[in-house]
Design a protein that fits this description.
By secondary structure, this protein is an alpha+beta fold. It has helices at residues 5-13, 40-54, 61-74, 85-96, 123-127, 150-157, 214-227, 245-255, 299-309, 361-365, 367-373, 417-426, 430-441, 451-460, 463-474, 485-500, 503-510, 515-521, and strands spanning 81-83, 98-101, 104-109, 112-118, 134-138, 141-142, 164-171, 176-183, 185-188, 192-199, 202-207, 232-236, 261-267, 272-276, 288-292, 314-317, 325-331, 337-346, 390-392, 398-400, 409-410. The strands form five sheets. Strands 3, 4, 5, 6, 7 and 8 form a six-stranded antiparallel beta sheet that branches. A six-stranded mixed beta sheet has the order 10-11-12-15-16-21, with helices on both faces. Strands 1, 13, 14, 17 and 18 form a five-stranded antiparallel beta sheet that branches. Helix 7 packs parallel to helix 8 (245-255). The radius of gyration is 25 Å and the shape is globular.
């Protein structure tokens, strides 16, 4: 299989999450207002009623209205969007930071729902669910052999807090079916992927988005790292598309001194609202590095900009996405919502980092592709910043507005054709599938091992590397892994660690040869 490295980059850049706040939308006037002159809102409502009452064929008015709303918002900016009910429910749950369920990581292996592992302290773990179990029935609903979509499977396992579900599992290790009753509970959706020590004095925290619980998770992780001896801190915002602005501000408050400006916003009426750091933060001194890349957006850029503009720490990586617009959200009765841009935000020096969007949404979201083509991802000198949008930090450092946060220390993307294809493969999900199947075939091979014993076992032999090469070749993928053997072995070891131990152990391994981490530690 030949994978174009440019296509690989485009796939990486494709998915971004944006800020979620509250807001308003059009009112629907009553009947006797329909004939008011020069009223666009009335015109739309009159047309909808006219079609509903008089059109010769039956039509789906919901579809027409949704299409109209999308077309209106498309005339505004790339981040003013309509969210249909099905998506809004999932987004709201994701940003809330928890849901009610049984707490398992699962994988559809062949025709069965196979448990990768129960979440720590979850209802499933407490009830006795084990890694490798197949859930055959949820109450009386058959789950195997039906090729059910993931959202349907989730719906069968979710429910009200405290409600009970009886699952029938097949336990391969014992070769028998078991019925287990599980009382559903609140399951956290973590926004902090990891909080680990990179060395005895350097802590690392990976934030994947800014949800309702992010500040709380961050504070707990930071406290734990300081107790373990961390004197310096690395905050990883790579591929973090944003979320709740207030959560990013709360984290910045922990890092900045009292009365330092964090961010300010300006609306269409020129009203300015400034937010300053308040009480003593838990990490106002000590070396601080913030990692960003081309997919770091919105709330991530607020945090990075506050650190850079106050000369508090060093920004490492590549130029961020460039989203400096603030949205407010309004919910509709049918469960859908509209996010409308209501203000721009500015970093403490007064710069807007919003990139231009006058050429339309398609060009706006494809801007990252042009960075690859222009060489920006490989060479800092290729970053084009408007010289007229020049600002100074308190210590005299020059920073620029007009399109993302430019890092203080540039780290190019790691990309040769061979390495790019291999990374694409390793991040495609096939690696997780392979590791699950290896563990499922022989879990006893790792039974009772400590983490250090596990690492020594993985390092000592090429068994799993060679087996993985055969696995992908058998799958029809023509990719020779020997050129990137150390990279593949590191990712293999990390994925085994994730499925056998936890996310922190995954990051302890995966970060060992990370280029941005190496730049920080040097």
């Amino acid at each position: 299989m030949k994978i174009n490295s440019k296509y690989f980059l485009i796939l990486i850049f494709a998915t971004l999450a944006f800020g979620i706040l509250l807001g308003g939308w059009l009112n629907f006037p009553n009947q006797n207002q329909f004939f008011a002159r020069n009223n666009s809102k009335n015109k739309l409502n009159k047309l909808v009623d006219f079609i509903t009452n008089e059109y010769v064929d039956t039509v789906n008015m919901d579809s027409i209205v949704n299409h109209t709303v999308n077309n209106i918002l498309a005339q505004l900016d790339p981040h003013s969007v309509y969210i249909p009910p099905s998506e809004q429910t999932q987004i709201a749950e994701n940003m809330k930071g928890d849901f009610v369920g049984i707490g398992v990581n699962f994988y559809m292996y062949k025709d069965s729902l196979a448990i990768i592992k129960p979440l720590e302290n979850s209802p499933s773990e407490q009830a006795g669910i084990q890694a490798g179990d197949r859930i055959l029935y949820a109450d009386k609903t058959k789950l195997f052999g039906r090729k059910l979509p993931t959202d349907t499977l989730f719906s069968k396992l979710k429910g009200k807090d405290g409600s009970e579900i009886e699952v029938t599992v097949y336990r391969k290790s014992e070769r028998k079916k078991i019925k287990i009753k599980i009382k559903r509970g609140i399951i956290p959706i973590k926004s902090i992927d990891a909080s680990v020590l990179l060395n005895p004095t350097t802590g690392y925290i990976k934030i994947n988005r800014f949800a309702e619980t992010t500040y709380k998770e961050f504070k707990a992780g930071l406290t734990r790292l300081k107790e373990q001896g961390a004197k310096s801190l690395v905050i990883d915002l790579r591929d973090n598309g944003g979320g709740y602005m207030d959560e990013a501000i709360a984290i910045a408050d922990e890092l900045l001194k009292d009365k330092q400006l964090i961010v300010f916003t300006k609306d269409k009426k020129g009203h300015v609202e400034k937010t300053f750091a308040t009480k003593t933060g838990s990490f106002e001194s000590g070396d601080l590095h913030v990692l960003i890349n081309e997919n770091s957006a919105s709330a991530s850029e607020i945090l990075a900009g506050a650190i850079q503009d106050n000369d508090r720490g060093t920004i490492v990586g590549r130029r961020s996405f460039g989203k400096g617009l603030v949205q407010r959200e309004m919910d509709f009765d049918d469960g859908s919502a509209v996010r409308l841009t209501v203000a721009r935000y500015y970093t403490p020096t007064g710069r807007s980092i919003q990139k231009p969007y006058s050429k339309g949404n398609e060009d706006y979201f494809k801007e990252s592709d042009s960075r690859f083509e222009k060489g920006e991802l490989f060479n800092k000198d290729s970053i084009k910043t408007p010289k007229t949008l020049k600002f100074k930090t308190p210590k005299g450092k020059i920073v620029y507005g007009g399109g993302g946060i430019v890092p203080d220390v540039f780290v190019p993307i790691e990309m040769s054709h061979s390495k790019g294809n291999t990374l694409y493969l390793l991040q495609s999900g096939i690696l997780g599938q392979f590791v699950f199947e290896q563990l499922d075939a022989n879990r006893n091979a790792f039974k009772g091992l400590t983490f250090e014993q596990f690492r020594a076992k993985m390092k000592a032999a090429d068994l799993y590397f060679n087996t993985f090469q055969k696995f992908i070749s058998k799958s029809g993928l023509d990719l020779e892994l020997n050129q990137n053997k150390s990279l593949v072995k590191r990712h293999l070891t990390a994925e085994f660690a994730r499925q056998l131990f936890d996310e922190n152990k995954f990051y302890e391994i995966i970060l060992q040869d990370d280029a941005m981490i190496q730049a920080v530690l040097k």
